[in-house]
Amino acid sequence: MKKVKVKIDPATLAGLPRGRVDENRLDATQEKDIASQIAQDDAEAMQDAAKFARRVRRRLGLSQLEFSRRIDVSFETIRNWEQGKRRPTGAAKALLKVLDKAPEAALSALA
């Protein structure tokens, strides 16, 4: 990949194209709209995490109970992950990634 350094003169910014921002819509945005979008984004992220946790477990061919026993995490935690009530973080998130990429090695290490 070729890198090119470009210097931008602030005096010439007025002559640059404006981009694809709808300034009227941006100006009309209120704090409640922003809060609503943040909540919607957070809900989507929770569902993505739930789908990932469920996909990893199913690829291993394990029930929630079997999966919880194999990775030494409570059944309720697995259920909450898959229902989108909680999101795996830290070590649990890393473990799910390893189980997704190298399931045999991860499960044998946990045995």
Helix content: 55-70%
CATH class category of the domain at 36-110: Mainly Alpha
Number of strands: 0
Helical stretch count?
A: 6
CATH topology of the domain at 36-110: 434 Repressor (Amino-terminal Domain)
The CATH superfamily of the domain at 36-110 is identified as lambda repressor-like DNA-binding domains
Largest sheet: none
Distance between the termini: 44 Å
| Whole-number mean pLDDT | 88
Shape: elongated
Strand content: under 5%
Keywords:
111 residues; 434 Repressor (Amino-terminal Domain); mainly alpha
Structure description:
It is a single chain. It is built from six helices and no strands. It is mostly helical. The chain has a domain of 75 residues: 434 Repressor (Amino-terminal Domain) (Orthogonal Bundle). Helix 2 crosses helix 4, helix 2 packs across helix 5 and helix 3 crosses helix 4. The radius of gyration is 23 Å and the shape is elongated.
